[in-house]
Specification:
single chain; mainly beta; 1 helix; 4% helix
């Protein structure tokens, strides 16, 4: 890496925090781990309109419908012109029923605080998250900035309609 190459600056907030890492050479995402040692975690219970602060000692339990802001124990600065997109690990969704309700979450280049992962228990059972568990992944992507200019937006195709409009009229079975 030369001095001109972009890099994500990483700061561990605890001595045992590992930097986000890719598991294989072909992995696009950097795994993010939960940091649950003696932490207060904000959780919105599915049956409550208030946010609870749950004390954790290495484990967080989420009831069905709960949404938590799971700490990662790190801060990181993404270079200007880039973002980190936070996505759920597929095994967490398929095997455990955890989702990111704001997926993908965005970490902007000027975000200064600890990275948190918003997880929702979308299953019908209590799910436990362990300290140090790989819970999500960050994809680093270039972001293009451009001005928004007021003007008239004309029709550029024959497409009409809103959501799902690309399939309108194309569902017929053609016979020849």
């Amino acid at each position: 890496m030369t001095q001109l190459d972009p890099a994500v600056i990483f700061e561990a907030l605890h001595s045992d925090v590992l930097p986000p890492s890719r598991q294989t050479e072909g992995s696009a995402g950097y795994d993010l781990r939960s940091y649950l040692k003696d932490r207060a975690v904000k959780v919105r219970r599915s049956d409550a309109s208030v946010v609870d602060e749950l004390e954790t000692v290495g484990r967080l339990s989420l009831r069905p419908g709960d949404v938590a802001l799971v700490p990662t124990g790190l801060k990181a600065r993404v270079p200007q012109g880039y973002e980190a997109q936070v996505r759920i690990r597929s095994s967490m969704a398929f095997n455990r029923g955890l989702i990111l309700p704001n997926a993908p979450g965005t970490v902007d280049s000027d975000y200064p605080d600890e990275w948190l992962v918003m997880l929702k228990n979308d299953s019908n059972r209590t799910v436990h998250i362990e300290h140090g568990e790989r819970i999500a992944q960050a994809i680093i992507s270039r972001v293009e900035m451009m001005p928004w200019i007021e003007g008239t937006v004309g029709v550029s195709t024959d497409r009409k309609g809103g959501l799902g409009s690309t399939g309108v009229g194309n569902d017929e079975i053609r016979t020849g």
